[in-house]
Amino acid sequence: PTITNPAKNFTAPHFTTPAPLARLDTDHRSFTLMTDTNPAPTTTLPLPSPFSTSTTPLTLISQGAEALLYHTTFLRHSLPIALKYRPPKPYRHPTLDRRLTRQRILAEARILNKCCKEGVPVPAVLGVGAEEGWLAISWSGGEMVKRFLMGVKGGGGGEEGEGQGRGLVERVLRLVGGAVGRLHAAGVVHGDLTSSNMLIEWGREGGGEAKIVLIDFGLAQMGTADEERAVDLYVLERAFGSTHPELEELFAKEVLGAYGESYKGAKVALKRLEDVRMRGRKKSMIG
Fold first, then answer.
1. What is the pLDDT of residues 93-133, one digit of tens each?
2. Is residue 82 part of a domain?
3. Residue 178 to residue 162: CA distance in whole angstroms
4. Per-residue pLDDT tens over the stretch 149-161
5. Does any domain span residue 94?
6. Active site residue 36
7. Is 52 domain-assigned?
8. Which of 36, 97, 192, 216 is catalytic?
9. Mean pLDDT in residue range 177-206
10. Backbone angles phi, psi at 17, to 5 degrees
11. Phi, psi (degrees; rounded to nearest 5) at 216
């Protein structure tokens, strides 16, 4: 089978609606990345075992500097997963590359497992291939927070975001703050908190209790220092200020407010956040 992107003008996909961005080579069991400017196969990336022999199509969701993210199934066809794959880096020595890949895959898996045990809303680890460089985690059908907030601002963005008012935005922001608070209470810092690395699971037909699922723990680490938590919050604050500048006041009130309610050590972390902000301003002034 062949999976191609027929659209002439390429639009970057979001996490919740997988778009066909890769062509499957059935002879070599590999994927070739496709773009609007170069629709022909140019770079072939072999798939890791056991996915190299899988009969289930893999859909490329996103490509980062270090890893590829696919949507596929695992163990059985009825179990959808997100597959994170760190392909070999040709610019690194093979021995060093294998060691770094193994360490990073295992570190991310351990952190996700710890978060699950502590009740932090994150994907569950379903499989690990440390030597091959892959990590299989549970698939979330949630909506990206970034997409939702932009949809509300523009009066669109899907059934959940379209036409919703300030009250729903406040609710989502409080969920974000609560999720980050539980993360820090578990002794974990994310390292890349943005509205793109959070999903909203609304519950059945948009009703019931909604929750935020934190994703992409490639830069996460165990951290119990208030400075580390403050920097984590600062990264999130700057990301919101850049992507959602109209929510600056609500961020301080709802996100940081809910953070303070969900994490007992928040008072010290928020005090340290003020110091981090001050250093950030000085750095911006100096250049």
1. 999 999 999 999 999 999 999 999 999 999 999 999 999 99
2. yes
3. 24
4. 998 876 554 554 4
5. yes
6. no
7. yes
8. 192
9. 93
10. -125, 90
11. 60, 80
